[in-house]
Amino acid sequence: MRDCTVENKKLINRVSRIEGQVKALKSKLENEIECGEKDPYEVIRQLSAIKGALNGMINSYIEHYAKEHIVSEVKNAKSQEDALVVMDSLLEVIKTFGK
After folding, report:
1. How many domains does the chain have?
2. Whose CB among 20, 36, 70, 96 lies 3.0–4.6 Å from 66's, allowing a Cys bridge?
3. Cα 21 vs. chain centroid, distance in angstroms?
4. Angle formed by the axes of helices 40-65 and 4-31, to 10°?
5. What pLDDT does 16 receive?
6. Residue 25 belongs to a domain with what CATH number?
């Protein structure tokens, strides 16, 4: 089993990078008051990069949670039904947030 502290540090680093991307976009928008001066595609590219980074982080977190918590819950389940309930909860998270 991997150390949660290491995984949390990786997640925190990703949040910091995303925060930097958002701040850069905010600064760009604040500095370009005149709408005619900015390249709309650059803003869209930055938004897409932020969206990709967030989706990547969601996937990493789900993977970490599954490997570190779901596996042990399934192993420790008292019955196959209990294990299936745990798996169903993971699948629900994936369906909801893994888009």
Report:
1. 1
2. 70
3. 14
4. 170
5. 96
6. 1.20.58.1000
